[in-house]
Amino acid sequence: MVEVTGGHSAGPERVAALVKDNVLVQLANLQTHPSVAKALVRRKVTLHGRVYDIGSGSAETLDTGTGRFTALAG
Predict the structure, then answer these.
(1) Could you give the CA distance from residue 26 to residue 42 in angstroms, rounded to a whole number?
(2) Proportion of the chain above pLDDT 90, given as a percent
(3) What are phi and psi of 12, to 5 degrees?
(4) C-beta contacts of 18-26 below 8 A and 24+ residues apart
(5) Could you tell me which of 32, 28, 23 has the C-alpha nearest to residue 51?
(6) N or C: which end of the chain has fewer CB within 10 A?
(7) pLDDT at residue 6 greater than cutoff 80
């Protein structure tokens, strides 16, 4: 995870890293919700992490095996 230090400007790379960290945190939060946890156990739902860069039009998906984001082919 990216360490946040107060008062410092965030460059594009840092913002991109924070966005990806947020996706990871939100996926973890979703898994703790009772209805989502139950659906995951029953294999009724799967969770996917994606990041879309509106400026470049690129998209990345989370590889749950490695914990890394990889470019979506398109």
Answers:
(1) 21
(2) 73
(3) -55, -40
(4) 19/51, 20/51, 20/60, 20/69, 23/49, 23/50, 23/51, 23/62, 24/49, 24/62, 24/67
(5) 23
(6) C
(7) no
d(CA 41, CA 6): 39
Q: 62: which residues sit within 8 A by CB, 6+ positions away? A: 23, 24, 27, 48, 49, 50, 68, 69
DSSP letter (8 states) at residue 68: E
| Residue 31 identity | Q
| Listed residue (69, 46, 66, 44) closest to 58, CA to CA | 69
Contact criterion met (CB below 8 Å) for 1 and 21:
yes
Tokens for 61?
């998906």
Element holding 74 (H helix, E strand): none
| pTM of the predicted model over 0.90 | no
Structure tokens at 46: 């799967």
